């Protein structure tokens, strides 16, 4: 779960709240001018890609140092940095800020989760589904940028590691099995349609140091997180996430207990030679189809729609 909060499960909007066209990349201006319509031509995407055209994801426990490293690494390597998703992407881009009236909005709050993770109102279920949805949309933006510009990106977490929190919450009794089953079905449906990151960077920090950094960070709702909860997060990362990602992505692990040398991390990333994963099998045609998908945010959002009903997220 994220460090920012007060989320709301609001409806989607296609209106972008853009302050200035100068804030956009050329491909984003093109999308607005064309009303999100796409031509069917193949535009030679592979010609735009270079050795630095990679999706890189930073992962690790709470307060592991992902944000600081991500920003410094992106600046050093000339990549675009995506901070950890903190608000629903559609709400962030939308001019229409008003929320639907109760009972349709299904409010979600991270503070409420930490205050009462077993709350009977379904907050924990909606919050985790919202976080996956947000990360899915953010990841689609990262893919869109890569495929349109050739510039590599660094993300602070992604939808691929989101299940770490689901498994931890389930073990702690915060999520029931029916909610976990719903989540994993929606996750599988979504991930099948996209490509995984080229590289995963995992920052390994022991739980006592994580607790120390949470205290230093000073966010009130993070001050009572138990050692066992943080240890469970670490355990799921190491026993499930890292082995799973190593099948399709290059995984680099760093001891970040005292922070590390950004230059050395950059050197490690630059020295990676991709030897596995679906990116090696892509053609201009397949990448064009992926580009068409990620440029259409309604199609991306609809990847989470499944034929399963659970009371926490169902109206009527």
Automatic annotation (TrEMBL):
GO terms under cellular component: mitochondrial matrix
Subcellular location per the Swiss-Prot or TrEMBL entry: Mitochondrion matrix
Chief localisation class: mitochondrion
Entry's Gene Ontology BP terms: mitochondrial electron transport, NADH to ubiquinone
Deoxynucleoside kinase domain ranges (all copies): 56-258
Keywords: Electron transport, FAD, Flavoprotein, Mitochondrion, Respiratory chain, Transit peptide, Transport
Xref: Gene3D superfamilies: P-loop containing nucleotide triphosphate hydrolases
Record carries keyword Electron transport: yes
Record text on subunit structure and interactions: Complex I is composed of 45 different subunits. This a component of the hydrophobic protein fraction.
PANTHER family according to UniProt: DEOXYNUCLEOSIDE KINASE, NADH DEHYDROGENASE [UBIQUINONE] 1 ALPHA SUBCOMPLEX SUBUNIT 10, MITOCHONDRIAL
Similarity comment text for this entry: Belongs to the complex I NDUFA10 subunit family.
Protein name stated in the entry: NADH dehydrogenase [ubiquinone] 1 alpha subcomplex subunit 10, mitochondrial
